[in-house]
Design goal:
The chain is of the alpha/beta class. It is 29% helix and 36% strand. Strands 5-6-4-3-7-8-9-10 form an eight-stranded mixed beta sheet, sandwiched between helices. A two-stranded antiparallel ribbon has the order 1-2. It binds guanosine-5',3'-tetraphosphate and sodium ion (2 copies). One sodium ion binds next to strand 7. One of its GO terms (cellular component) is cytoplasm.
């Protein structure tokens, strides 16, 4: 998506060789018009699929997910994060290890918000090692919902997340694909 690539070029800050800081439009301050354009783009990319609900993980997945849900005219649910596991019959939970932060979060969705047989689109801000998406897939499995696909705002093709999802045969659409960071510059794939 050209608009997003331009925004990354303009406002993104490369940290070392693996991390892109985009806290002025995606991870802290939010650019609503860009989020809306991205939501419309995801809806377009997955059109033709029946989608009943959008699922993401707090906090940075929420903005793109809500605009995607708006464009699809369906509800959006976000998994909540907790440091300690709250075992409950009323929740689906999964462990998500963050390589960036070197900590494990438990992600939690109330059972009332996923119904067996529903068709779900997963959205997230970054695809790096794929842990967050794997956590959502685990919850989807436990809830017996069907995952239609995964929409990612920024994919880093040099980390292992994409390969994991491709191996599972999951339909992945990324709005920007980054092949590498070189000398503080973003190298886009394709
Ligand atoms: P994963 O998201 O593929 O599982 O990879 P990883 O474990 O590395 O990601 C941990 C956290 O770091 C996630 O946010 C993820 O979105 C974020 N992240 C990964 N790579 C980058 C990057 O290059 N730049 C930025 N800005 N973030 C990155 P989180 O812990 O879930 O935090 P939140 O922002 O959603 O609250
Ligand atoms: Na994030
Ligand atoms: Na995230």
């Amino acid at each position: 998506m050209k608009l997003l690539e331009e925004k990354i070029r303009q406002d993104g800050r490369v940290i070392g060789t693996e991390v892109l800081k985009v806290d002025n439009f995606l991870n802290h301050q939010i650019d609503p018009k860009l989020m809306q354009a991205m939501g419309n783009e995801f809806a377009q990319l997955f059109k033709g699929q029946q989608i009943d609900k959008v699922l993401t993980v707090e906090s940075s997945g929420i903005a793109p997910a809500v605009f995607t849900a708006l464009a699809l005219d369906v509800p959006m649910v976000f998994a909540r994060k907790k440091k300690s596991l709250t075992l409950s019959d009323e929740n689906y939970t999964a462990d998500v290890f963050s390589f960036t932060k070197q900590e494990t979060n438990h992600i939690i969705v109330d059972k009332r918000f996923l119904t067996a047989g529903e068709r779900i689109l997963l959205i997230d801000d970054f695809l790096a090692n794929g842990q967050a998406v794997e956590g959502m897939l685990e919850i989807a499995r436990a809830a017996s919902v069907d995952v239609v696909g995964v929409g990612i705002v920024i994919e880093k093709t040099f980390q292992k997340g994409r390969a994991i999802l491709d191996e599972k045969g999951i339909h992945v659409e990324s709005l920007a694909r980054i092949a590498a960071f070189e000398d503080g510059q973003v190298i886009f794939a394709d």
